[in-house]
Amino acid sequence: MGAPRKVFFTKGVGMHKDRLASFELALRQAGIEKYNLVYVSSILPPNILRVSVEEGIAELQAGEIVHCVMAKIDTNEPNRLISAAIGIAVPKEQDAYGYLSEHHAYGETRDISGEYAEDLAATMLATTLGIEFDLNAAWQEREQIYKASGKIITTTNTCQSAAGDPGGKWTTAIAAAVFID
Questions:
Q1: Contacts of 171 (CB under 8 A, 6+ apart)
Q2: β-bridge partners, 179
Q3: What is the rounded average pLDDT of the residues 141-157?
Q4: 48 - beta bridge partners?
Q5: 160 with 83: CB under 8 angstroms?
Q6: What is the torsional sign of CA 124, 160, 173, 180?
Q7: What is the distance between the alpha carbons of residues 92 and 34, in angstroms, rounded to a whole number?
Q8: What pTM value is reported for the model?
Q9: Which fold has domain 6-180?
Q10: 98-137: burial string, b at 16+ Cβ within 10 Å, e else
Q11: For the chain, which residues make up each domain, given as ranges?
């Protein structure tokens, strides 16, 4: 088995009285409930093609074993803010690998969690590329350094946030990078 050829990014939220059913509903909203998901670590393979959720799902079959990087969080605390994010950092060199990061948090907005995940992926990539930066500098400052280096072409994120169900049902948020072999 070689490296995946394609990747798509998706997200979802589910609410149900049962924790597992809440997760299932989040998978359904993300469009990935009918696959046997295997979690992998955070390397974005070289030369991978990013496709839409619809294009990616069209290539998969129900029951197929599908590799993914997933961020997942849940709560049954009424109105508690949750978020799950995947950060993406793609190097300029097409033959080089990039990074994905998963981040999940309580009390963070979509923007804060998404930016944190993006920062994490970019920082991991920057350290492997030998880009000099101050780890304590703000993300916006480091982002400019990363992009000015000419070694990182893009950083972005996919994030799902939700407020816990007011009635105390389980609420699950997921974000995922789904690979297609």
A1: 13, 14, 15, 22, 74, 75, 76, 80, 82, 162, 163, 164, 165
A2: 7
A3: 82
A4: none
A5: yes
A6: negative
A7: 34
A8: 0.93
A9: Pyruvoyl-Dependent Histidine Decarboxylase; Chain B (3.50.20)
A10: bbbbbbbbeebebebbbbbbbbbbbbbbbeebebebeeee
A11: 6-180
